[in-house]
Structures are given as C-alpha cells and as structure tokens.
Specification:
The chain has 89 residues and is mainly alpha-helical. The chain has four helices and no strands. It has one domain. The mean pLDDT is 89.
C-alpha cells in the first residue's frame, strides 16, 4: 500500500498523467474548492460532462473512463485503508 501510494504521489507530483485525465481531476478539485467538500460521484460526473461537452468524442470517452477508473481505485484504496474516507487522489 505504501509503495503504491508513494508511486501515485510521484506520478501526480511529476504530472505524468494525460491532459484529459488531469482535466478530470482538476474539475473535481475546482468543484471541491467551490463547495468546500469532496463532491459526490454524481456531482463530479455532471461537472465533467459539462467541462467536456465541446470536446471531441474520443476526449469525452476518455474523460468518462478516467472518472470511472479514478472512482474505482479510490474505493479500493479506501477499502484497504490507504486513503481516508473523504480522501481523493
């Protein structure tokens, strides 16, 4: 768990993520800053949908996959105790 968390932190620190994936995460950070809490999956999905509405189909599909995968891995990390209940990557 610690190794995975360190690897994830390194990737995020070095921004070794694609532009679409980073935009999906940025959308949630912006929404969290505006609401003062971690947004629900539904709120995040709606915000991503709005943010990507003018993009091409490939970007929209990648954004949806990124949101789904991020949520899945965060749920797994929470279950393993590697991420706080209200934590996010």
């Amino acid at each position: 768990r610690a190794e995975y968390r360190d690897r994830l932190a390194s990737l995020m620190r070095n921004q070794l993520v694609g532009r679409v994936q980073e935009a999906v995460l940025h959308t949630r950070r912006t929404l969290a800053a505006r609401t003062g809490r971690t947004p629900t999956h539904e709120e995040w999905a709606e915000a991503v949908g709005r943010a990507f509405s003018a993009r091409d189909a490939d970007d929209r599909a990648l954004a949806e996959r990124s949101l789904r995968w991020t949520t899945l891995y965060e749920d797994k990390l929470r279950a393993d105790g590697a991420l706080a209940p209200d934590g996010r990557v």
